[in-house]
Design goal:
CATH class of the largest domain: Alpha Beta
Number of helices: 10
Distance between the termini: 10 Å
Strand order of the largest sheet: 5-4-3-2-1-12-13-14
Helix content: 25-40%
Length: 275
Amino acid sequence: MKRKLPGIIALDYDGTLAQSNGLVATPELNALQTLGKLGVVRVIATGRSLFSADTVMPRDLPIDYLVFSSGVGVMDWPKRDILVRNSLDVDISRNISEWLKNHHLDFMIHHPAPDNHHFYYYEGSHGNPDFYRRILRYKKFAWPLEKCRKFEGISQLLVVVEQGGRYWLKKLRETFPEVNIVRTTSPLDQKSMWIEIFSCDVSKASGLMFIGGRLNVLQENIVCVGNDYNDLDMLRYGGKSFVVGNAPDDLKREFHCIGHHAEQGVAELLSELCS
């Protein structure tokens, strides 16, 4: 009996679809092309900004939509048309910023999409290597918060925590229930916690809801694949969801586990969906 094809396949990028060099290997590319020919809508849902995504994703990557910055924006990939641009309330952002300052935390305030790779930063702990590493990587687009006179718009806040991440994640969620606070693992040192703060209606899942609604695809016909905590809302939204073998153990206990992303685990799953 032939397997029923999903309406949408949504994949996280780094640590899931892409290899450690940031590129998609040939088996995964071939499987994505086959799925497209079969009428499956292919979505990448990533924490990367559009600017960052463009540094590793070629324009001819065989996908249909990009959900970038964990739901801040949604793009029709082939047309390069941004369909959704979400933002965080400026007054709420100001309140959270003051709280973060008072607790001596390191954080960044990002400009609106699609220029949300630009940010202001505040150094609270004076000794956070991963925080400095990110500023160095984006030095052309990063300015000290003290140089900001007025915010014209904000896409998100990002807190970089070297130690005590779970404590600060819990405190932030208790203190600011009106926003969506997402945990992710730093892609720079693979151990620090990044705490991303978005508008309450922004997530990878919200991006999929928009695409599904636009295309009349039911939630039950959406397959999701991820590898980290910032994929949780998407994984829990999908009609069927998988994590790769390199995902944290608690995610592997909650969702179907496939092979490691570096060992063609995703290619094998995509090929099975095609058969």
